[in-house]
Amino acid sequence: MPPASSRAVDNLDDDDYPAYTMGRAAEMLGTTPAFLRALGEHRLITPLRSEGGHRRYSRYQLRIAARARELVDQGTPIEAACRIIILEDQLEEAQRINQQLRTAGRQSPPKTSA
Asked: Could you give all domains of the chain from N- to C-terminal order, each with its CATH number?
């Protein structure tokens, strides 16, 4: 197992590492803890919990929360903002898979008839 200091550095580069407390996350986003709780209630983000049960957020989750805040600030209801972000994510994933399939199709050898 790598030394603790090496693991700590790896965690700094990990987008999914739950490094931020709810208070710090809310401060960074310029929002309230209640807004972050609402995103969890609408299943947009699910923070990990510390041993003491406190919510912890990753950088990836903060980017999603920032997108939600952007939509809400533009007047979109929070429920709709969460649904929009989920659909955007699904579309992005489908486009990524589609591109992989196209690339794989170009790389396969042509079929020969018997």
From this structure: 11-93 (1.10.1660.10)
